[in-house]
Amino acid sequence: MSMDLPREPQAVWPVLLDFRRVAACIPGCEQVEELSPLAHYKAVLKQKVGPFKLEVPAEIFVEEMRAPEFVRARATGRDKFTGTTFNITLEVSLQAVPDSKLNVQAGLQVAGRLASLGFSVIRKKADENFAAFSAQLQQEVMA
User: Fold this and answer.
1) Does the pLDDT at position 45 exceed 90?
2) Is 137 exposed, middle or buried (0-12, 13-18, 19+ CB in 10 A)?
């Protein structure tokens, strides 16, 4: 997935490093806490997917960062009501072409009751969330 951002990378990178601003762009992301700057975070993700309402306490770890162009992170969490577990990997790269292009590669492993809905339902929700995130991030970058 990718999005074009109408600012140069030097203006976008500080926004990407501001965990509160990025978290505000993620649908259902609440209670964000920085445990170690630019390395370890906690958050609660609330989503409705099909018939399930999920509330997933998650831990997020930044595994690699090359300023101002690349971040790799992973997140894990478990919904206490459905027992659904999540393992997410994210690779975010920022390129100058001619303003900024943000590329996001995500891997998602889901196990438990939510997985019974099937890949197409989960993928549709992920696409909706990325579209909402993209729109919010556009506004943050322009602020």
Assistant:
1) yes
2) buried
